[in-house]
Amino acid sequence: MFKYSNTNKRYYTLDYYYKTKFNSKVAKINLDGNFTCPNIDGKVGFGGCIYCLNGSSDSNKKKTLLEQFEEKKQIMLHKWPNSKLIGYFQANTNTYDKVEVLKEKYELILKQKDVIGLSIATRADAIDDDVLNYLEELNKKTYLTIELGLQTIHEKTSILINRCHTIQKLRKRNIDVVVHIINGLPYETKEMMIDTIRYLNKLDIQGIKIHMLSIVKGTKLESMYKTKPFKILSNEEYIDIVCDQLEYLNENIVIHRLTGDPLKEQLIAPKWILNKIDILNGIDKELKIRNTYQGIKKIENEQR
């Protein structure tokens, strides 16, 4: 019934995108490349962003890239036999090193059987011209996606301009961009969260990941919340906001994620976020009740 879905979802599903593009189920293999971050090592700041745990688990850091890859590959192939694979460099800032180091790590994964591409999570201020040139070269050889943490548009203008300028530079090299946003940041209103979507519609992005703010042990946000607690969205409020955001979002932007996956033992709040299936089902149910779908409000506004 819906344009970009093979499961009758009311939004452009990543599974549909992959199956259309590669004629196959595609699984992403999360990897820790042992990179750091400008906001951890002191170049920009120390300790990471307020919600950041500074990377993935210690168990990953004790394993080589190939050990991580093989372990997680077996898990994915058990779930989805005959899947194609994408190496996902997820932890910290995965372009924050010399090009020679990036080549060694990226191309090691690309050599593995059934790997059709890479997804690389990074920051806008960690893609210099040398890295950009290499990413352009890589993009001509394989399927490549760069994931950027925008989180919100409601920051200092200089930060926002820098991030958007990086998106423009990547798109000029024909590199696909996926943007991350976070709902429920301290003191943001529902309208502010929808404004972030309205702004993203003006950018040439190919995908989006929507997260709920998680307060995790050991982060600056934990201290902030304990010192001066701020309002945390309820499950119902989050579902309502996400559905509004989907209604405004361009219909051709692929939905890579609609909620996060915090570890239970690390999570302080909100506890409801641990029930991912309920959240996704709640979004589906609310869109059905509204009889709406991704992009409907943007389409209606354009037709006026």
The arrangement of helices and strands along the chain is HEHHEHEHEHEHEEHHEEHH
- The residue-averaged pLDDT reads 87
- The chain-level structural class is alpha/beta
Looking at the structure, what is the overall shape? globular
Radius of gyration: 19 Å
- For the termini, the CA-CA separation is 25 Å
How many E strands? 9
**So what's the CATH class?**
Alpha Beta
Instruction: Order the strands across the largest sheet as they lie in space.
Output: 1-2-3-4-5-6-8
Quick structural overview:
The chain is 41% helix and 17% strand. It is of the alpha/beta class. Helix 6 links the parallel strand 4 (143-151) and strand 5.
How would you sum up this structure, described in words?
It is a single chain. This protein is an alpha/beta fold and 304 residues long. The protein has a single domain, classed as Alpha-Beta Barrel (TIM Barrel), CATH 3.20.20. The protein is 41% helix and 17% strand. It has 11 helices and 9 strands. The protein has helices at residues 14-22, 58-61, 65-79, 99-110, 129-141, 157-172, 190-200, 220-227, 235-248, 276-290, 296-303, and strands spanning 26-31, 84-89, 115-122, 143-151, 176-183, 207-212, 215-216, 254-257, 267-269. The strands form 2 sheets. The chain has a 7-stranded parallel β-sheet, with helices on both faces. The chain has a two-stranded antiparallel ribbon with strand order 7-9. Strand 3, helix 5 (129-141) and strand 4 form a beta-alpha-beta unit. The model is unreliable at 39-48 and 55-59 (pLDDT under 50).
